[in-house]
Amino acid sequence: MSEMEQRQVPVLYLVVPCYxxxxxxxxxxSVMGDKIRRLEREGKIAxxxxxxxxxxxxxDKTLYLLHQIAEADxxxxxxxxxxxxGHQSAILAxxxxxxxxxxxVVTIDADLQQDIEALDHFLARYMDGCEVVYGVRNDxxxxxxxxxxxxxxYYKLMHMLGSTVMTNHADYRLMSKKALxxxxxxxxxxxxxxxxxxxxxFPSDVVYFDVKAREAGHSKYTLSKMMTLAxxxxxxxxxxxxxxxxxxxxxxxxxxxxxxxxxxxxxxxGNNVPGYTTTLIVTLMLGGITLLSLGIxxxxxxxxxxxTKHRPRYIIDTLVWREDAQEDR
Length: 329
Description:
This protein is an alpha/beta fold. It is 47% helix and 16% strand.
């Protein structure tokens, strides 16, 4: 950047989605609050920077604790959704709310596993002119064998299908107000931010960080939720599975044609050998392929069905945001 284009020190908002995080939310608020104050003292962010917790329909005492935190310190604000809309929608709700007040927004999980000290590097990249900065974990040594293997296979599959999703990036990112305003123009209901944001084309960079042990409690991201997110990522960002079905159908047609020729030759030569095994194998194979194809097509049709309804991606129930002695709800 030239001197004339040098950016001003930004007002930074941390957006922290929460779902049943009562065990860790007070610790998270303390650690994040200390980090924001330190960045302010060092002149890396402007006064007025905040931490915005997004309560995604928690069923425990998370919302009660968040309100207490926000009432005690105006640095903290709370966006409470009317129900449980899911991790991606909670992140989007926080970003779209924060962009009204912030120059830059960083999304980070509440469990403190994503290294908050990496914020210094995020801000350095922002000051250099990046509109989006991705946090990417150095490795997956903290994961179990199953999660590590499935994650590796998933990213390889996504890249094979033509997705721009970044390997080992899990919604720890910085976005400028410019990028957030552009993101607001995307209206799709089926959200997969990890794949969507890289398609925007803004100048971006990567910051690598080490994953830490969870401070308290356990992950709320169950296997079923991870599989749902993975499926959403595939069907939201690529139509290649549909093209694979077409290719598979073409191969099956060729196979069937060859089998017909072989059968006719055997009939002409008088080799009327009972074909029970062949018939069974072909029937089972075609039946399996048909059901799998219908399932994939059905997944896309379901996504189209949900998009045509134009339902809101989230509904905000309450907003606690204070500036000096003011409080908006």
